[in-house]
Structures are given as structure tokens and as C-alpha cells.
């Protein structure tokens, strides 16, 4: 049988790092990445207008205080809507694009496990989405921070940190969930439709406290909203009722993430590239 | 256990079908040992399917595929000692030739410095070790793209190379150069499997040919045997006529005719004259003249082995 070459001292980590780099570069350091970032930051016009009013009209739309306005605006607009959507779009891209243009072949024929190829891509998705979310949060928080400073309101910097943690959980969860969908349905239009359905479902699950109480627990946004409310309780001294302890919600997310990533690895091992 | 003789690639009763019931390979059994093996067959024969199965990009529906005694779909350690050149031109758009090879060297486990060295080495082999290596691949000509794809397959000096149509789109100079490269590699003990849709492209340097047609292994053996097989393959022509014996007399004397046979189905008005020829081109040229001079009524002329014949003619053109 073939003799193994000595110079091919194969290091898994090195190969993985290359896949991570190439996937990251092509997905996030591209026109697509830049465009998405700019598009998402358009929503930061809202605090920007608030800042303008504070500075020049001596008035503001944020009657409940700048920090609380940040909390409610960022919680709803970005954490429940924009960030999951961004992740879904990038997930479909990072998983299917090199299958579509067949560059995946070059990774398949290296001494790298299939699951590692996909875990590298998932990691690139998580890191990239988290960085974008971090930029979005920083820009928004900065605007509200300035408003609060100008109006001499109390500023609790823990708010930034708490939302960073929430973003991190959201990124982990949505990256794995949407990557799985992309692996199963490698058609971009279909995946996009599925993502949006998934995302809509999740949003309504969280928001429709009205009729869907009985099945509320199956929607992921329900738990995100609870963590957001817990944050408000800590930072603003509110008294929202939380169904579960934050600890168990985090444990729940970790379990979910583990199940999803195992499923992701399982699917990636069986994937063919005809 | 002889090291030289053990086959690198084993396909045992492999069937692969794609979505929509398109068959890629059909109960395919073959082995590849050392030297250069040419996979030859027309478009859609199953050459790429063979190479994709051997590189674990797809897995067989039925049967067993083994490379170095391992399953390439499950065991990626196979690729420590295997290089593959894909058929399609797939590149990351922003990369130069050098970056492309370097990144793939790193993916094979090379450190940064080692990858640089290895890149220089393989680019030299395919004669791309000049300023062109620093240009983006999207500006490359087809021949240069073929060469950069071969270069990445050579990373780590694997003992087995699987090359899918490495000559596609290459001009005669590039072709000759690549051919010499493969011959040199063989001298160093590298086994090569390469595919082509024409025999002459690979026959100068291939030790073994495997003829593939419609997902099946049609024939295999040394180039000379394959040539002989194709040449000896008789072409059968079926002539439906009311007086086959009469007509046969006119054909006996033709040099292009190898043998004649007559069948008289009792329930038919017409008899059948079977003609075997090794040279259908010449035969068909002579046929009208013979028919005219014989004055025998001919109902129908059919070429029975058209399919296969067309394949062979195509492969040897
Ligand atoms: N991804 C695919 N999906 C569906 N059918 C496929 C796919 N790839 C190949 N086929 C079919 O499988 C058969 C064998 O194709 P294959 O690509 O192996 O042929 P080939 O010998 O490489 O031909 P060519 O000379 O055109 O490259 C063909 O009928 C082809 O249509
Ligand atoms: Mg092909």
C-alpha cells in the first residue's frame, strides 16, 4: 500500500483555519457583507434623529430616558428581527455558495473531515455575524449614550454587556439552526423562504402572548424576550415576571445549541457533492 | 504482500445514480494499480462519476469503492497521499494563482513557510513559476487554469493522482508539456488516473486504458490491445432483400467485406444478408455501386452496431 509521506504531518487545526479564513473572507469581507452592514445601520437613523432633536430642538422622542429607549429599540428591532435575518442570509450563503460554484471540491479532497469543513464554516458564520451584531450594537449604544450624556441621565454600562450576551446567544442559536436548513435544502430561494417562515413563526410566537399562550414555549423568541426582560429588571429595576430562571433559559439554549450542532455534524458527514 | 502490485483503487460492482434516475455508473468493477491509466469515453460516459466516487465527493448507491484500502467518502486520511484535479473551473475569484495553491497547501497541513516552498515547487513543475502566478486566476487562459489545477493536485507529492480531463482546452504546447510532466511523475513512481473523451490524447503515455461507455466498463487493457480491439471490432450490416443469395455473390469479392451470412426466415417474404466488415467507411462507399450492378431488389439496409461503432469511431478519430 501507499507509503505515508513524512512531510504530510497533517495538522487538523491548520486546515480548518484556512477554511475558516476563506469562508469568512468571501462571506463577510465582500460587497455583500458591507452592504448588509450598511443596510442594518440604516435603522440606527432612529436614535440618530433622537440625537439631532436632543441637540438642536432641545426635545426628544425618547420620553422614557435614552437608556431605556436603547433597550426597547435594540431588543425588538435588532435582536428579534434584523440580526436573525442577517444570520439567515449569511448562513444560506456560507453553506451553499461553495457547493454551487464547486469550490467545495478543493476542501473535500484534503485530509480534513467533512464535519470539520462544516464546523469551520459554522464558526466563520458565528464570528462574522457576531462581529456585525457587535458593530450594530456599538453604533446604537453610542448614539443613545450621547443622548443620555447630553440630557444628564443615568447611564448603566452593564446594559451594553447584557445585550452583548443576548446577541451572542442569538447568534449561536440562529447560526446552527439556519445552517442546518441550508444543508438540507441547498437551493437559495427555497432556503430564504424557509428562513423567513421560521423567523416569522418565532417572532409571532414571542409577540402573540394573546392567543398562542399554550404553545408559546415552542418559540425561541419567547425565551429571548424573557432574557431581555430580566435585563430590564436588573438594569432599570422593573418587575417583569419571568417564567423560568435565567439560568435554566441559558441551560436550555446550550442544550438546544448542542443538539443542533450534533445534527449539523451528522448531516454534513452524509453530504454528497455531485 | 507485494507493495507494487496492490491496487490503489478498487471499484467493486459499483452503481451510482443521480437525482432523476440518471445513471452515472452501472455495476462497475475495476481496479487500478501503478502507472498511468487513461479513462476514455464519450461525454456522459461516467468518467467524472468514477473520479468523484474515488475522491469521496459522492458515495455509491450499491457496491464498494476503496482507495488505499479505505473508503474515501468516510476516511479523509486517504487525501494525505492523493491529488485531484477537478473537471470544472472553480476558483475563489479574488485569488492569484500563487495564493490559490498556497491556501490549498495549508489545507493539507503545511505551515505558512512550508506552504510557500511547496507552492514554488509545484508551480515550477507546471511551468507557472513566473510573474503570471501573481495574477488573479480570473485573468488566466484556459490552458493556464488547467495547469494551476494540476499544480494544486501535486501538493505534497502524492503517490496517486486523479485528473479529470487535464487536457481540456489546452493547446498542443500545453498538452505536450502536461504529457511530459505526467511521464516524469510516473518515472518517480506516481500512479496517475486521467480521463479524456478521445483516445489519442492519452495513448502516447498511458499504460492502461479503460474504455467507459454509458456507465459501464467496455474494455480495459494496454493501449495496443485497445487499439486492436477497436480495429478488429467488426461492423455488421443487415440487408433485407428478396434474393439474398444472388446479392451475396456481388459482395464476396469486395476487400472490405470480411464475411457473409444468409438467413431465410420461412415466414418472411424477404431473406436477410448479414455482412461483416472491418472498414465500414470503405464498404459504404462501395455499397451503392454493388447494389446498382446487381440489380437485386433491396428492401432495407440496417447497420446493427451503429451505437458501439459510433463510439469507437469517435474515440479514435
Ligand atoms: N450532478 C449530476 N446530476 C445529475 N446527473 C449527472 C450529474 N453528473 C453527471 N450526471 C449524469 O451522469 C452520467 C455520467 O456523467 P459523467 O459526468 O460522469 O460523464 P463524463 O464521462 O465525465 O462526461 P464528460 O465527458 O461530459 O465530462 C451522465 O449521463 C450525466 O448526465
Ligand atoms: Mg466528465
Question: Brief overview, please?
Answer:
The complex is a heterodimer of chains A (274) and B (317). Chain A is mostly helical and 274 residues long.
- The domain tally of chain A reads 1
- Strands of the widest sheet of chain B, in order across it, are 5-6-7-3-8-9
Largest sheet of chain A: none
CATH level 1 class label of the largest domain in chain B: Alpha Beta
Main beta-sheet strand count, sense and barrel state of chain B: 6 strands, mixed
Can you write the helix and strand succession of chain A as a string? HHHHHHHHHH
In total, the number of strands of chain A is 0
Shape of chain B: elongated
In whole angstroms, how far apart are the ends of chain A?
A: 28 Å
Q: What kind of oligomer do you see?
A: heterodimer
Ranges of chain A where pLDDT stays below 50 over 5 or more residues in a row are 1-10
**Rg of chain A computed from alpha carbons, rounded to a whole number of angstroms:** 21 Å
Average pLDDT of chain A works out at 86
Given the C-alpha coordinates, what overall shape of chain A results?
globular
Mean pLDDT of chain B: 88
- Are there runs of chain B of 5+ residues with pLDDT below 50, and where? none
Count of individual beta strands of chain B? 13
The number of helical segments of chain A is 10
Please trace the helix and strand order of chain B, writing H or E for each element: EEEHEEHHHEHEHEEHEHEEHEH
CATH topology of the largest domain in chain B: Rossmann fold
Q: What Rg of chain B, in angstroms, do the CA atoms define?
A: 25 Å
Question: What is the element layout, followed by pairings?
Answer:
The complex is a heterodimer of chains A (274) and B (317).
Chain A: H1 12-27, H2 31-41, H3 45-57, H4 66-100, H5 104-108, H6 114-150, H7 158-184, H8 188-207, H9 220-236, H10 246-270
Helix pairs in contact in A: 1-6, 3-6, 4-6, 4-7, 4-8, 4-9, 6-7, 6-10, 7-9, 7-10, 8-9
Chain B: E1 9-18, E2 22-32, E3 36-40, H1 47-54, E4 62-67, E5 82-85, H2 97-107, H3 112-125, H4 142-153, E6 160-163, H5 172-187, E7 191-196, H6 199-203, E8 208-213, E9 216-222, H7 223-232, E10 235-241, H8 244-252, E11 257-263, E12 271-277, H9 280-294, E13 298-303, H10 306-316
Parallel strand pairs in B: 3-7, 3-8, 5-6, 6-7
Antiparallel strand pairs in B: 1-2, 1-4, 8-9, 10-12, 10-13, 11-12
Helix pairs in contact in B: 2-3, 8-9
The site of adenosine-5'-triphosphate has 14 residues of chain B, from strand 2 and helix 1.
